[in-house]
Design a protein that fits this description.
Layout lengths: L1 H13 L4 E2 L11 H11 L13 H11 L6 E4 L1 H13 L4 E6 L3 H9 L3 E6 L9 H8 L3 E7 L11 H10 L1 E7 L20 E6 L12 E4 L2 H8 L9 H12 L1 H5 L2 H16 L5 E2 L6 E5 L4 H10 L2 E2 L1 E2 L7 E5 L3 H16 L1
Parallel strand pairs: 1-11, 3-4, 3-5, 5-6, 6-7
Antiparallel strand pairs: 2-8, 7-8, 9-10, 10-13, 12-13
Bound molecules: pyridoxal-5'-phosphate.
Pyridoxal-5'-phosphate binds next to helix 4.
Length: 345
């Protein structure tokens, strides 16, 4: 198994399959010992049966892990499903405020649901929340604001103090998406004790490197969990995922042992990028970097793509920006060499 996975990295670096620096994935495959445990446990499942719709074993493990009781937890088929369920349960007849740029899925889902979305741009360059503007838009109406912390795609952490002000000075339900929590270890989970309208989101995709199993969860007061649970499909998380999720919690130490390498590689990549003339790198608390190029990003993005390297463009409003996920060192090196060549042309 390990050999095949090492081969996959070699193929990617050799250009036979794309180097994936566009989806903010964890670049490391699961440790073989954890794979073995997964194989053994999956073999015991009765797949002719529906999974436990109350997800008891998983919630019990998650409760022990997070310190929050099962009534405050809700699991979903990835955070994307949880975001959809939150919008369905809490977004109707209320405004949904989105500081932008942010994770594009929030707007895509809210718009598809016909909800009333108000976008508030972040402050230029510092990428912090424009608090006066958000407070004005929010007024004293009930509504939803989704805040990504660290923010995708800018990579920075919004000030905790600003989020606490939104909780105390408005009537908004404040959803804090901590998908990239593991790369900075700054969390708003302790603030749940004092704030009824705070909702925190976590995923197994990034820090645990388990994007393929699709597992995320929400932590909030029981009444918020109940409201979201009412619109949850009965068997939304499958038996294989629930089992692997419990194993991941059990073996968390080994999964987290890979993070220092990713963080060190992020810093190395940022330093290397900053040596390229005209290139600016924004500080990141996540597993990706936002980079400003001296020219339009599209031709560079195209050249990288032709060389088999996938990165993310931010779109027409931010024409010079690229978002690059931190890959393994060999992948990042290949990216750097193509970028240097493209910018020198
Ligand atoms: C901020 C943010 N939230 C959620 C997700 C998706 O999480 P999941 O894989 O659990 O659906 C992503 C994926 O890139 C993300 O960037």
């Amino acid at each position: 198994m390990t050999e095949t996975k090492n081969q996959q990295l070699a193929y990617a670096v050799a250009g036979a399959v794309p180097i994936r620096l566009h989806a903010n994935e964890n670049p490391y495959a699961l440790p073989p010992a954890i794979w073995q445990e997964i194989e053994q446990e999956l073999a015991t499942l009765e797949l002719n049966r529906y999974p436990d719709k109350a997800m008891r074993l998983f919630y019990q493990a998650l409760a022990e892990h997070t310190g929050f009781p099962p009534e405050m937890l809700l699991a979903g088929n990835g955070l994307e499903e949880i975001i959809l369920l939150l919008l369905v349960a809490l977004g109707r007849a209320r405004q949904v405020i989105l500081p932008i740029p942010t994770f594009f899925v929030y707007n895509e889902l809210a718009t598809a649901l016909g909800l009333s979305v108000v976008e508030v741009p972040l402050l230029a360059e510092s990428w912090q929340l424009d608090l006066p503007c958000i407070l004005q838009v929010a007024g004293q109406e009930e509504g939803l604001i989704i805040i990504c912390r660290p923010n995708n795609p800018t990579g920075n952490l919004f000030r905790r103090q600003d989020i606490l002000r939104l909780l105390t000075e408005t009537k908004l339900t404040v959803v804090v998406d901590e998908a990239y929590y593991g790369f900075c270890e700054d969390t708003m989970l302790p603030d749940l004790a004092n704030h009824e309208r705070l909702v925190v989101l976590r995923t197994f995709s990034k820090t645990y490197g388990l994007a393929g199993i699709r597992l995320g969860y929400l932590v909030a007061q029981a009444q918020v969990v109940e409201a979201v649970d009412r619109v949850r499909p009965v068997y939304n998380v499958n038996a294989l995922t629930l089992t692997i999720g419990r194993i991941a919690l059990r073996r968390e130490r080994e999964l987290l042992a890979r993070l220092p390498a990713i963080i060190a590689e992020r810093e190395r990549l940022a330093t290397e990028l900053a040596t390229i003339p005209g290139v600016e790198v924004y500080p990141s608390a996540a597993n990706f970097l936002l980079v400003k190029l001296p020219a339009a990003a599209t031709p560079i993005w195209q050249e990288l793509r032709e060389a088999g390297i996938h990165v993310r463009q931010l779109g027409v409003k931010q024409p010079n920006l690229l978002r690059i996920s931190v890959g393994q060192q060999q992948e990042n090196e290949k990216f750097l060499s193509i970028l240097r060549r493209a910018l020198a042309e």
